Every structure is written in C-alpha cells, then in structure tokens.
Amino acid sequence: MSVSTANRTSVWTRPERGARGPVPSLGRADITAAAIRIADAGGLAAVSMRAVAVALGTAAPSLYRYVESREDLLDLMVDAAVAELSPAEPTGAWLDDLVAVARLQLGNMRDHPWLPDALQRDLSYGPHTMDFFDRCLWMLEPVDCPTTSKLEAVGLMTGIVTLFARATAPQQPFMVAATPEQHPHLFAALAKAGDAAPRDPFAQAVRSVLTGLLTAASDSDGVG
Amino acid sequence: MSVSTANRTSVWTRPERGARGPVPSLGRADITAAAIRIADAGGLAAVSMRAVAVALGTAAPSLYRYVESREDLLDLMVDAAVAELSPAEPTGAWLDDLVAVARLQLGNMRDHPWLPDALQRDLSYGPHTMDFFDRCLWMLEPVDCPTTSKLEAVGLMTGIVTLFARATAPQQPFMVAATPEQHPHLFAALAKAGDAAPRDPFAQAVRSVLTGLLTAASDSDGVG
DNA sequence: AATTACTGCGAACAGTGTTAGCAGTTTACA
DNA sequence: TGTAAACTGCTAACACTGTTCGCAGTAATT
C-alpha cells in the first residue's frame, strides 16, 4: 500500500533504462551532476539541453534518452540538491529543530543559487525531498495540530527561506529616484538608511511563522 | 534633491518619446495593457513580443521603439498591476493596516496570476510601486525601529503574499508514492489528511512575521 | 538467425528575444 | 522655406531555445 498526491507520469515513476538495447554511456546521475555544475556557475538559464550535452561530450538529442524533458532534468536537479542537506534527528525541541533545518536550507540555496528558481516551478518531488518532508514531520511530532497544517508550515518555511536566499543574493532591487514631495516617508527612510542592523531577521521570521501557524494561538485573528 | 538606490538605466528614467519624429501610433500604456491582458489569460510565458505585437496590430520590432527589452515590458506590467491596489490611509493600528494591505495584494495576485512570477525577477520599481512603499512606511510610522527593518518587513510581507498566492493556485505539488517503511511520518500525514482546516493561515503568517520583525521582542528568541 | 528494443545523433522544426537597415514622416534649425 | 536631424514602423535576418524525426548501429530475447 502507498499514498501519493497525484499520478502524473514523472521521472521518478519511469524506469531509468530498459533491458534490451546497448548499455547507455550515461546515467541520470551524470546528467544531473553536469546540469548542477552549469547552474552553479551560470544560473538556471544557462542550463540548456545543448549546454549540458556538450559538458558531457554528447549531443542534445541524446539527453532525451534519459530524460523526457528539460522539466524532468530540473526536477532531478532539485532532488539532488535537497539530498545534500541532511537534517539531524529530532531533539524534542521542535522549534529549534526546524530553525536549524531552515538554516541548512539557506546554506543549501547559497551553494546553489538557482535553487529558489527551480523550486518555484510546478515541480514533482523526488525521493530525497520525500525524506526531507518525513524528517520535518518527525520533528513536528510533539506538536498537537492537524497534519495538513504541519505540511503547510514546512512548505511555508521553505518558501520563506527562498525569500531570504533571494534577498541576500548579490543584486539589489532598483528604484527610481524618491522625492520628498511625492514619497515623503520613503525618502526619509532611504536618506537615513543604515541605522542599526537587526539581530537575526531570518531566524526571527522563521520562528514567528512557525509558532504562529502551529501554536494554539488564542487571540491571533484580531480584527479579521 | 533625490534619493535612489541605483542608477541603472531603466524604463522609468528614459523619456517615453523624443520630440522629433512622427507621432507614435502606440504608447507604453497600450503595450502594457495588451501584455497584461495576454498574461491574465495565458500566464507570463504567453507574453512574447510577437504575441503582444499581434494583439496591437503591429509587428514585434515596432515594440522596441517603446520598450528597450522584454524585461522593460515586465517592469511596466508589474507597476501597472501594483497601481491597481490602492491601500487606505493609516488608521494608527499599523498591524491591522498592513494585514489589510497584504489582503489587497493577495487579491491583486488572484486577479493577475502572473504577478508572483513577474515579481521575482530582478525588477526595477516604478512610480506606483514607490507610492505603495511610501504608503506602507506611512502606516509603520508609529513603530519604533530602524527604517531599514521596516523596508525589509514590507518586502518580506510581499514575499509571503506571493507564497500564498502560489500555494492557492490550481496546480498541486506532485509526490511519488509514500510508503510506511521509508516515510512513516509523511505516510501517516497523507493517509489522514483533512482533519480540520486551520482558521486563517494567511493572516496568521503575515501577523506573525510582522510582529516578529518589527516588535522590540523581549522574549521572542525563546527556547533558543 | 531473426526479431525486438534500445542507443546515439545529424538534420530539422517551430518558437524565442533582438538587431540591421531601409522607407517614410515630422520636427528643429538655418 | 529648405534642409538636416531625429524619429516611426517594419521586413528580413541572426542566434538561440526545447524538442521530434528518422536512421545507423548494438545488445538482448526468442
């Protein structure tokens, strides 16, 4: 018996190779590794089928013997990247455990800056991602709340990590000039920027959201 | 005098048209409107220069008389969409004000499902987006904390809204089958899904993050 | 030995953003 | 007014993308 959320065909359900023809010179692992190397260097946009192919010394159409589409390849990349973060076992302090997981994720996205982009697709989770979710749910065992909420919370946590990963990325958002007449508050804010760095907005945000979502929260709906 | 965060050339600094040639048959507003119409119907990927061009009865290269690149067009689209949300004036209750703003944003992203995608580019903010930031900072005037933190908080709020906008979108994340042996906690969670819907995770998350980031937070690092 | 199923890949297709360059049009300046 | 400068609109084209077709070669099955 097994439980799944959909039955779309994906890389994970398709066998890696048949048993009839000549032995393939590549494997999904090779292709995935090459793609990740390219993405680490040049971003997700640099991962074209042709680029991956030349990195492997073959031609682009050959890749379609191993992968059904570029989307498949991106799914493989995500799962391979998620495999790199190995969260510790639960200690019982679920909030600390999950904040530690979030820190791991942030580091993972620093190692692979393309990861946020790859995550925001309509992706299909692979086995390592499933392991990851399972770990997080294990950590959340002491929490008494519906399991759907726990999954939601883990998903939102991951989302927030991507937000921070993006925000810390090299490029700064661009603004047209702010004038004191049209944008008085923004002008004031930009003029005296750099007052004092907040302590740890990342952990702060993660903790806030997790406690907010997973805690009984008697007076939280306020003005609704 | 003015304050800006960068001096990259962008749509906003370039004049809409010169003063020498024949009067243009289009304007940036027309092109932006057409592009938004296409994106509303078919997503951001459907917004190709050629598609926008035929929607306007012209050829693709003509658009480059009004816009320097597709990125420029996307920047215009974002600013036009942001212009549609007109947040109320501050009431003094900053948290409630901002939660209301977040709700407006969420509605805006429901009207324009491409907005999350367009927002997570390396975009350059236009005048309406500046107005929006200014409004938010105005709401945050009663809060005593560094202005950089306020800007960060508004940015993070917007990010969280995009996460929810995506999560509520039609497509469901896909998972390979979860087995009780390999993923015991995930299996249990998926098996008994649908216990009880949480009350309002959106407002919950927004409130949590905002208070977490903007409040003096005497005991917020808790168990750490 | 024949069949079947596979691999690897050159050629090609439909699509993308973008540029070159040209004819025609309007303004600015002499 | 005449002329030069600056602009518009657009056809053709370039370099790129993901992907499919179909063919030659290879290994396992029957």
UniProtKB/TrEMBL annotation, chains A, B:
UniProt cross-references to Gene3D superfamilies, sorted A to Z: Tetracycline Repressor, domain 2 (1.10.357.10)
Keyword annotations: DNA-binding, Transcription, Transcription regulation
DNA-binding region in chain numbering: 48-67
Domain of life: Bacteria
Residues covered by the HTH tetR-type domain: 25-85
Location of region: Disordered: 1-24
Polar residues bias spans: 1-12
Alphabetical list of InterPro entries matching this protein: Homeodomain-like_sf, HTH-type_TetR-like_transc_reg, HTH_TetR, Repressor_TetR_C, Tet_transcr_reg_TetR-rel_C_sf
Tagged with keyword Transcription regulation: yes
Name of the featured protein: HTH tetR-type domain-containing protein
